[in-house]
Design goal:
mainly alpha; 587 residues; 70% helix; two-stranded antiparallel ribbon; 4 domains; 4 strands; single chain
Length: 587
């Protein structure tokens, strides 16, 4: 299996989904991720695959411990997402989902910046269709905004990559030259994909507008692939420590205020990725292990949360907390699996968030970063409050709205059960994950002190929720995010610009000017201007000849537009003379 690139397996599977009919298409859709998992499991550390393209040596696969652990979770969640979306009748969404997952594996194994950029852009292009396939006007608009933002990020990344290649640094690795434009260009491109505020609005805008099944894939790949690149290129960058802590708190604040269930979960992506970004900023081996482990855990429980939210939307047609409630009786399996995911993201003992998030907090404490330790712990409280209590309670145990949920397809339920099983399995047996981490560490999450502290924290949060439940009740409002500060002014600037152009047109029309009519032909034919200049000095023009006119119709005269043969001879003589002078100068 090591002769097959896992990304290539998923890309070929996408092609088969397009070609094959019916059940064969389903087999290709679910079989591709399964084969990708097997391929990852059989790739040995140190494996390298090269490919020469137009004389440039590309390292399409370079396997080390960091790449393998990210590749494993990307392949696993691709399988879970495929299982969840197996019932789809039209192949389009399944095709782009596989291409999206394949792009993530391509980035993970890329050994050079050019290969990484190619798969980076494959992810951006394929993922937008998971938003557009929902078919709503809002989804179409959100998809275009998503595409524009990633176009900006992709171009920043491209310019940075070209500078790196031009300076003799084509291989993916740590970028240390903070005085280099390439450092900042690549960092900007990655920061956009990581949704670091204020570059985050695309995420909370687009993910809630994705399809029910597509949002599962969206929640798993883009931001975590960005974390992978941060681990590779920017370990120890102190700026990321501050950015990560801000992300962790920022996402929580807006999640508590949010009414849309998938937008609430999207804000928690920002918050949880903040832990990973902060750990990269700390930069120690323990912190980097924590960042990687938490990315692994986050992908599992966040995809499960989006599966649960998607199941509710699929079954009820509602996506606002103010429109939901009392669903536990009608959707018990969804409620149970969602509860497991909620406990996982909150960092409850015996669930996978507990075994990874605590590594990052511990790493901050070891480095004496007391404020970082405190703020990340505070973010854990907000996470449990907004998802484990508020979202879970009001969606499944709040006021019964009289909804009649339809039955879920079996594959959706099975995917949620498998996701919940993995969240619990890794939470009980952390060694299954720790053995994959790139750096050796002596860390045990199940110390009595650690368990007691986290349990007390969660219980205190639950009591606070009970006491202040009336104030935390969902409200049918719209929360203004940071992006309002630049979206509104930019809209004003654009409107002013358009209004100014319209006014200029009015002035030109009023003055009888025909500027546009005169200049547009020159844009259509750039050679017109020099030809007219030559014509102006031609003998025919000098004689003032005009074309004949009969009954108001101008007759075309070819001779009027022909230059005398002498002009051609003169130009040829001048050209040959210049060549002769140049030749003599070289001797």
């Amino acid at each position: 299996m090591t002769s097959f690139h896992p990304a290539l397996i998923l890309i070929v599977a996408a092609l088969l989904v397009y070609i094959l009919p019916g059940r064969l298409r389903q087999i290709a859709f679910i079989g591709g991720p399964l084969l990708a998992i097997l391929a990852v499991l059989t790739i040995e550390t140190g494996t390298v695959m090269n490919y020469t393209f137009i004389g440039y040596d590309l390292i399409v696969l370079k396997a080390d411990a960091t790449a393998l652990v990210f590749a494993l979770i990307f392949a696993l969640v691709a399988f879970l997402g495929a299982m969840y979306a197996l019932h789809l009748q039209k192949p389009g969404e399944q095709i782009v989902a596989l291409l999206y997952a394949g792009g993530s594996l391509g980035v993970t194994f890329a050994g050079d910046w050019l290969t990484l950029f190619f798969f980076w852009e494959l992810m951006s292009i394929s993922s937008v269709f998971l938003i557009w396939y929902r078919g709503r006007t809002e989804s179409l608009k959100a998809g275009f905004r998503y595409l524009i933002v990633h176009f900006v990020g992709g171009n920043s990344m491209l310019f940075g990559v070209l500078l790196l290649i031009g300076s003799g640094n084509p291989l993916v690795g740590s970028l240390t030259g903070v005085d280099s434009p390439a450092f900042w260009l690549v960092l900007l491109g990655v920061a956009i994909n990581a949704a670091i505020p204020p570059l985050h609005a695309w995420l909370t805008d687009a993910y809630p507008e994705g399809t029910v099944t597509g949002s599962v894939f969206l929640s798993a790949f883009t931001t975590k692939v960005a974390v992978y690149v941060l681990v590779r290129a920017f370990p120890g960058a102190q700026l990321l420590l501050y950015a990560g802590v801000i992300m962790a708190i920022y996402g929580i604040i807006f999640a508590v205020l949010e009414n849309d269930i998938r937008r609430l979960l999207s804000y928690h992506i920002i918050s949880q990725v903040g832990y990973m970004v902060a750990a990269v900023g700390i930069g120690t081996e323990l912190a980097l292990n924590g960042s990687i482990a938490h990315a692994f855990s986050h992908i599992l429980y966040k995809s499960l949360l989006f599966m649960g939210a998607g199941a509710v939307i699929y079954a009820t047609g509602r996506e606002k907390l103010t429109e939901l409630g009392g669903l536990a009786r009608a959707m018990p399996l969804t409620a149970i699996t969602f509860a497991i995911a909620a406990l996982s993201i909150a960092g409850a003992p015996l669930f996978n968030g507990f075994i990874s998030k605590s590594i990052i907090v511990t790493a901050a404490g070891v480095e004496g970063l007391k404020m970082t330790d405190f703020l990340l712990t505070l973010a854990s409280v907000g996470t449990f409050l907004s998802i484990g209590l508020k979202l879970f309670y009001y969606m499944f145990f709040g006021e019964d709205r009289g909804l009649k949920p339809i039955q879920l397809p079996f594959n959706m339920s099975l995917a949620m059960v498998l996701g919940a099983f993995l969240c619990t399995l890794y939470g009980i047996y952390p060694k299954l994950l720790y053995d994959w981490l790139p750096f050796a560490m002596d860390y045990n999450p199940f110390t009595l002190d650690h368990i007691v502290n986290y349990t007390q924290l969660l219980l205190a949060t639950a009591v606070a929720f009970w006491l202040f439940m009336s104030r935390l009740e969902p409200q049918a409002n719209i929360s203004l995010d940071f992006d309002w500060l630049y979206r509104k002014p930019l809209a004003y600037v654009f409107d002013t610009f358009v209004a100014t152009l319209k006014q200029i047109k009015v002035w030109l029309d009023a003055s009888g000017s025909n500027v546009l009519g005169t200049t547009v032909p020159y844009f259509a034919n750039p050679f017109m201007a020099p030809l007219k200049m030559l014509w102006a000095v031609s003998p025919t023009a000098a004689r003032g000849e005009r074309e004949a006119e009969v009954d108001g119709i101008i007759l075309y005269s070819a001779d009027r537009y022909r230059f005398p043969v002498g002009i051609s001879v003169l130009l040829a003589a001048v050209f040959l003379g210049l060549i002769a002078v140049y030749t003599l100068a070289l001797q």
